[in-house]
Write a sequence for this structure.
């Protein structure tokens, strides 16, 4: 558990959020390549679930970015 | 939980270019997170583009083009032709006394030209050792993820006629 000064705690939270964003992005890149391969093979039925899941992943990334932005704002301005 | 950034009374440049090193750590992380989130948006746009192409997909109409005479090739023989346009190389293989198959000659990995390996009875891509089944064009080995698009053949009066493409997406 990080019991350091508030500035360091904020950095730890931001680092954790960034790792989550990176993981979600890797999944999203894989999803795009898989959907594209499927589409090029003539299986167009995979496009809708691919777009929905990609939208959910983007929303999660956006929420994490909001979190990072808020922490940054709160810690640096008190 | 608050979702939006606290309104700041400081000018924007002070937010983006902090004086202290401790602040710089936050700004660099926030900007990197923004970059990653924009990349995520790019991936979403890619998926939406594929969805739009799928929703507005119209099956193309293919011409009927004579490819070869049925007795032109010996068993195991090969003929190269182009179909449906002059920019689409295809390969015709006579696999038996009365069986013929034809596929797009572009490897589905990086579009190198595949050739028929008679000894192994398979189509091979020499660039990255991608192997395809001559029976149905499916991938046997190597980096390609998709089967070769197949050319539909009709036999009309001793002539093999290309009548369409199967498994060609996009």
């Amino acid at each position: 558990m990080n019991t350091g000064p508030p500035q360091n705690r904020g950095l730890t939270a931001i680092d954790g959020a960034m790792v989550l964003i990176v993981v979600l992005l890797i999944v999203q890149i894989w999803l795009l390549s898989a959907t594209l391969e499927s589409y090029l093979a003539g299986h167009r039925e995979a496009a809708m679930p691919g777009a929905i899941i990609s939208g959910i992943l983007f929303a999660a990334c956006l929420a994490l970015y909001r979190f990072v932005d808020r922490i940054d704002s709160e810690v640096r301005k008190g | 939980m608050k979702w939006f950034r606290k309104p700041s009374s400081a000018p924007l440049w002070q937010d983006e270019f902090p004086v202290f090193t401790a602040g710089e750590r936050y700004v660099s992380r926030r900007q990197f997170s923004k970059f990653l989130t924009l990349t995520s948006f790019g991936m979403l746009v890619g998926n939406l583009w594929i969805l739009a192409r799928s929703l507005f997909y119209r099956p193309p109409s293919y011409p009927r083009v004579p490819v070869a005479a049925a007795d032109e090739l010996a068993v195991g023989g090969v003929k190269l032709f182009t179909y449906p346009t002059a920019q689409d190389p295809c390969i015709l293989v006579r696999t038996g006394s009365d069986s013929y198959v034809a596929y797009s000659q572009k490897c589905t990995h990086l579009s190198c030209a595949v050739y028929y390996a008679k000894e192994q009875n398979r189509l091979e891509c020499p660039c990255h050792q991608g192997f395809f089944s001559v029976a149905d064009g499916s991938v046997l080995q190597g980096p390609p993820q998709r089967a070769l698009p197949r050319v539909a053949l009709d036999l009309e009066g001793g002539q093999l006629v290309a009548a369409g493409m199967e498994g060609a997406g996009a």
Remarks:
- Residues 138 and 147 of chain B are 4 Å apart (CA to CA).
- Residues 12-55 of chain B form one domain.
